[in-house]
């Protein structure tokens, strides 16, 4: 029997995530689904392979219980099935990886669900977490209101949590979104790759994990950001594969037409920068990026300044808009602007 899985992704990344799941091979079959940010997969390969998914936020194992109410889960047979489901996740990791259990459900504080949490945590030898848990369970109504589904996250942390992120910064980009931006720029080994405003290094690291670049450069005007990038690159084992520089993205010491790929997670003006600063920064940065980009260079820029970006791009002949992808970053909906350098002069 194949496993029934739900792969959770940032809404907007579904089609890229579908391709990534298809690359797992014939053992992974995608079911049609309409819920944004959720891909249903029937899978009969080794579950650990799913941990290689870079676009997924989390992967859940799903079990349907044809029961009228959650109380029935306390019955011996259903409880054993639920414990077995949880053990499938636990057994994928070294002993001790999971310490706490958390059950997310409507009415999670009801006496029935409190008992269910006690039974499960007792059987599995885990503490009950307060707001979160290593072993994350979700209980919800089944499709069409029929029965109930129990979901178990396969990993003690979301897959979106990157092991290399030892230095965090406010405004750091979500790993899967950075991975998507790297894929959209079609990485190639002979690229001169430039990441403007590298912050904590997310875009650089996600790009370099996809393969070598002839030269990779990250720049930022903030010295703490540069130190953070270096720390994370070190943790990712990628320090020797890129240059970290204190360049201002509006005035780059690079020759005209020399760069193949440019990426940036631009200050949105929420956590980093301000809208007024962006009114000056964005046109200057787009102009300078166009100067250093070679004709047909690829560029992926993430920004929540949608109107400003659209207005600027409408007036520029140096950049052609290829795609404008709206992504859900935890309730904020920035766009990935995928651009191609034209052969017009700056
Ligand atoms: C939204 S943050 C980038 C976050 C990064 N992607 C990460 O994951 O940590 C934007 C970055 O742009 C940098 N920045 C702002 N203006 C800049 C400029 N003119 N030149 C270079 N970097 C700049 C800021 O210092 C900040 O680190």
TrEMBL record:
CDD domains referenced in this protein's UniProt entry, alphabetically: AdoMet_MTases
Single biological process term from Gene Ontology: tRNA methylation
Domain Ribosomal RNA large subunit methyltransferase K/L-like methyltransferase: 162-333
Record-linked InterPro entries: RlmKL-like_Mtase (IPR000241), SAM-dependent_MTases_sf (IPR029063)
Keyword Ligase appears in the UniProt entry: no
GO molecular function: tRNA (guanine) methyltransferase activity
Lineage: superkingdom: Bacteria
Keyword Methyltransferase attributed: yes
Keywords assigned: Methyltransferase, Transferase
Protein's name according to its UniProt entry: RNA methyltransferase
């Amino acid at each position: 029997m194949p496993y029934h899985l739900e792969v959770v992704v940032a809404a907007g990344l579904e089609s890229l995530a579908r391709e990534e799941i298809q690359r797992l091979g014939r053992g992974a079959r995608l079911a049609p689904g309409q819920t944004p940010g959720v891909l249903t997969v029937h899978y009969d390969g080794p579950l650990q392979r799913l941990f290689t998914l870079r676009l997924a936020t989390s992967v859940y194992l799903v079990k349907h219980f044809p029961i009228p109410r959650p109380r029935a889960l306390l019955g011996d047979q259903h409880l054993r099935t639920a414990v077995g489901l949880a053990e499938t996740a636990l057994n994928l990791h070294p002993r001790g990886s999971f310490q706490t259990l958390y059950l997310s459900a409507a009415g999670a504080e009801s006496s029935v669900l409190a008992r269910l949490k006690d039974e499960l945590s007792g059987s599995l030898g885990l503490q009950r977490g307060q707001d979160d848990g290593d072993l994350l369970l979700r209980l919800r109504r089944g499709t069409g209101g029929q029965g109930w589904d129990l979901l178990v996250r396969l990993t003690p942390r979301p897959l979106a949590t990157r092991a290399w992120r030892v230095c965090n910064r406010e405004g750091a980009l979500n790993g899967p979104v950075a991975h998507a931006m790297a894929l959209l720029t079609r990485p190639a080994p002979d690229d001169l790759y430039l990441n403007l405003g590298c912050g904590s290094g997310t875009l650089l690291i996600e790009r370099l994990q996809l393969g070598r670049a002839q030269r990779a450069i990250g720049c930022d005007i903030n010295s703490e950001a540069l130190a953070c990038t270096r720390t994370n690159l070190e943790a990712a084992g990628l320090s020797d594969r890129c240059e970290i520089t204190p360049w201002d993205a509006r005035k780059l010491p690079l020759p005209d037409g020399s760069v193949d790929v440019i990426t940036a997670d631009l200050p949105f003006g929420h956590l980093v920068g301000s809208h007024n600063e962006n009114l000056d920064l964005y046109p200057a940065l787009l102009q300078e990026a166009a100067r250093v980009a070679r004709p047909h260079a690829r560029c992926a820029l993430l920004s929540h300044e949608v109107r400003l970006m659209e207005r600027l791009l409408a007036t520029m002949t140096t950049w052609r808009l290829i795609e404008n992808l709206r992504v859900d970053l935890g309730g904020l909906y920035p766009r990935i602007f995928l651009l191609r350098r034209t052969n017009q002069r700056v």
